[in-house]
Amino acid sequence: MHILSSQPLGSAKENDEVHTVVLCSGKHFYALQTYLQEQLSPQAARHYAFIRIEQLAPFPIVELASELKRYSGAKRFIWSQLNSGIL
């Protein structure tokens, strides 16, 4: 099992084309990827990348920092998770 994986949403030719990095965990990645692909044009989608974190404890800070360096042009970083309805 990988601790984390990274991939562009669209057809970015270079990682510096990515302006927004979305971090998420588990199967939420697939629903989020499908939703954004349906909502964004191909030109807009190439500015997004996903980093899927599969191990939250202990948190993979070194691996995440290394992966974030690949997206030097990113200006926004978003954490997305499912809302289970539990308060």
UniProtKB/TrEMBL annotation:
Transmembrane as UniProt keyword: no
Pfam family, one: OxoGdeHyase_C
Coiled coil: none
GO MF annotation list: oxidoreductase activity, acting on the aldehyde or oxo group of donors, disulfide as acceptor; thiamine pyrophosphate binding
Residue span, 2-oxoglutarate dehydrogenase E1 component/KDG C-terminal domain: 12-81
Keyword Oxidoreductase: yes
Keywords: Oxidoreductase, Thiamine pyrophosphate
Needed cofactors: thiamine diphosphate
Protein family membership: Belongs to the alpha-ketoglutarate dehydrogenase family.
Protein name: 2-oxoglutarate dehydrogenase E1 component/KDG C-terminal domain-containing protein
Organism annotation: Protopolystoma xenopodis
